[in-house]
Write a structure and sequence with these properties.
- The protein is of the alpha+beta class and 196 residues long.
- The protein has a single domain, classed as 2-Layer Sandwich (Muramoyl-pentapeptide Carboxypeptidase, domain 2), CATH 3.30.1380.
- The protein has helices at 6-18, 27-35, 63-80, 93-102, 132-147; strands spanning 40-41, 48-50, 60-61, 84-88, 122-126, 151-155, 160-165.
- Strand 6 and strand 7 (160-165) form a beta hairpin.
- The radius of gyration is 16 Å and the shape is globular.
- The relative contact order is 0.20.
């Protein structure tokens, strides 16, 4: 089981700060990051579906997170001939604060345990409708990636698998501990749509 903890959230935020990964504190930050392609679009494919209520401007993430989604969803599709579903990608601080008011398990928008969705490095995958065999396959796929420090999966109380993907997933950052990082720089809710 991929358990979350306060310490894990702190570690993830420390890593994001070390790598100088910008958070989406406002709609302006989000639009600017989308236009500069610091955040890239995630498109539906035969292997990957996106929750219908996820707004178009929230269907973005970091390039390495998209690489991970494409790799995982294609491998899953090749195995089961069925798509995975993404429920959430990038969020703004306002969106996260709104979500936290309606979901007591949601991470805060700011602080040492802030939601990693604000950085565009996290994805929530739906667990609804997965068989035990399918879910165990996903867990088996993620475990070696977690051991290599490429992803941090968390099984949430809600039926989603929250996965944080680190920049080194795509080989964009040296993985040697003597190297220094070259910086390239959280179920969904939107205050404007008043969805829970």
């Amino acid at each position: 089981m991929f358990q979350g903890s306060h310490e894990l959230l702190v570690q993830q935020n420390v890593k994001l700060d070390q790598d100088q990964i910008q958070r989406m504190n406002s709609e302006y930050d989000l639009v600017k990051s989308e236009m500069s392609e610091d955040l890239v679009p995630v498109n539906e494919t035969n292997a990957l579906k996106i929750e219908d209520n996820l707004l178009d401007n929230r269907r973005y993430c970091r390039p390495w997170t998209r690489d991970f989604l494409q790799d995982l969803s294609q491998a899953y599709y090749d195995q089961f001939h069925a798509p995975l579903q993404v429920n959430s990608l990038v969020r703004t601080a306002d969106q996260q604060a709104y979500l936290r008011r309606h979901n007591r398990f949601a991470a805060p928008a700011f602080g040492d345990t802030a939601s990693t969705h604000l950085a565009g490095v996290a994805v929530d995958l739906s667990r609804r409708g997965l068989t035990n065999t399918q879910y165990q396959w996903i867990r088996g796929y993620l475990q070696p990636l977690q051991q290599k420090g490429l992803v941090d999966p968390i099984e949430e109380r809600q039926p989603v698998l929250h996965v944080v993907v680190f920049e080194k997933y795509s080989g964009k950052v040296p993985t040697s501990s003597s190297s220094t990082s070259e910086a390239s720089e959280a179920t969904e809710a939107d205050p404007a749509t008043s969805q829970p």
